[in-house]
Amino acid sequence: MAIVGVLSDTHGLLRPELRVHFGGVDRIIHAGDFDDAQTLSHLAGMAELTAVRGNCDRGAWANPLPEIDFLPLAGHTICVVHSLHSLALDLAAARISVVVFGHTHVPHNESRGGILYFNPGSAGPIRPGKPTTIGKLHFEHGKVRGEIIQLVPG
């Protein structure tokens, strides 16, 4: 069994609840829009980190971040991208079983055609009418399940 903490769109804000919810995770995935190097560095100190660049990640610190990344884990391949609309890939042919994305600030946890599409929502500053959320991916018995965790109601 493996548990992955997933977040996106932190926009320079790491909430203290993160340590509680991500304590003991095997890895963290950030789907972009850190907005600063400190957030990236802090998360890398919590657990092994897979991260992609979002549209707000600019400057020399963000240049090494890929726009898309692939992570093999527990018999699955996870595709990480900031904006789902920028993904030009035949997911089935690439044998992707999970797509982690951000950008919309809206949590999404849906399986379609054998692929889990997972957006943890926005973990950053409060946005009117939208919840502040993070997520977890649970890998167990060859299957993967997404979980959305609400930090601040919308």
- Spell out the CATH superfamily: Metallo-dependent phosphatases
Residues in helices, as a percent range: 10-25%
Q: What oligomeric arrangement do these chains adopt?
A: single chain
Strand and helix order: EHEHEEEEEEEE
Average predicted local confidence, pLDDT: 95
Span of the ends, CA to CA: 32 Å
CATH class: Alpha Beta
CATH architecture: 4-Layer Sandwich
How many domains, in number, for the residues?
1
Please tell me about this protein's structure:
This protein is mainly beta. The chain has a single domain (2-152), classed as Purple Acid Phosphatase, chain A, domain 2 (4-Layer Sandwich), CATH 3.60.21.10. Helices cover 10% and strands 37% of the residues. It contains two helices and ten strands, in the order βαβαββββββββ. It has a five-stranded mixed β-sheet. A five-stranded mixed β-sheet has the order 4-5-6-8-7, with no helix packed on it. The longest helix is centred in the N-terminal third of the chain and has 10 residues, at 37-46. It is globular, with a radius of gyration of 14 Å. 35% of the residues are buried. The mean pLDDT is 95.
Write the layout of secondary structure elements.
Blueprint: E1 2-7, H1 17-22, E2 27-30, H2 37-46, E3 49-51, E4 68-73, E5 76-81, E6 98-100, E7 108-112, E8 115-119, E9 132-140, E10 143-152
Compose a concise summary of this entry.
The chain is mainly beta. The protein contains 2 helices and 10 strands.
